[in-house]
Amino acid sequence: MNKLRSIRLPQVEIFVEPVQDYRFVLIFRGKNLSAQITETDPQKTGLPPLEARPLDEEARKTAETVNRWIGAARDIIKSEHPANMVTLRGWAKEPGLPKCTDIYRLKAQALAVYPMYKGLAALVGMDVVPGLHILEDQFRALKTNWKGYDFFFVHYKYTDSRGEDGNFEAKAAEIEKVDAVIPLFLDLKPDVFIVTGDHSTPAVWKAHSWHPVPTLFCAQGLGRHNEVKGFGETECLRGALGHFQAVDLMPLALAYAGRMAKFGA
What we know:
The chain folds into two domains: about 1-80, no CATH class; about 100-255, Alkaline Phosphatase, subunit A (3-Layer(aba) Sandwich). About 35% of the residues lie in helices and about 10% in strands. The protein has helices at about 1-5, 60-80, 100-105, 115-125, 135-145, 160-165, 170-185, 235, 250-255, and strands at about 15-20, 25-30, 110, 125-130, 150-155, 190-195, 215-220. Strands 4-3-5 form a three-stranded parallel sheet, with helices on both faces. β3, α4 (about 115-125) and β4 (about 125-130) form a beta-alpha-beta unit. The mean pLDDT is about 90.
């Protein structure tokens, strides 16, 4: 990593920082840079990295800079690193997202292990707890900070990871780990408790997919009765919420928590 940090290119300031496992973050700072370039990850093993290409004329300089950095990184890795190459994806600028305190009037805390989700939470104004490594750490932090926040984002990465590995049994085992700690969360008596995901990652597909994700929505004394006995895509379709759009989830949570003066017009 230190060797990659030594790469210098004209008209840009470059930062290379380790994240976790095999991931790192690459930052370019300079004038007239654009995120409108293609990713270099071919999304399949056994294929060489792709060249970065501009998606519009304004991004041409950025694509050229990225490819020059990749070339320098290739030379370093070839001679001094056990990895065979780097792949780059997720190009973006700081988006200037509105904060959850402004949109929802909630003081929010993020309890995540994986660094990317800490970063996403920080972008929307959540306070991020450092130094968490396992689910038990996340629950202890939740219990410690319970009275100081209105909203907690507790993220668990490894159901997604095992799905991308194509390992159904391992994915089921990760879901069972989460299932085992849910009673601890419920003992804190939250106004609203939600379990869901940001996308599906079916093991048979070994990738993210378009399928709707199951959602458990619990509000003490306010939920609608239903006959659902399990947590899965087919079973949850029988629930009181039915099939709904993800953008409706936060308004429902706020309404059930009594944090809306009025629901709807």
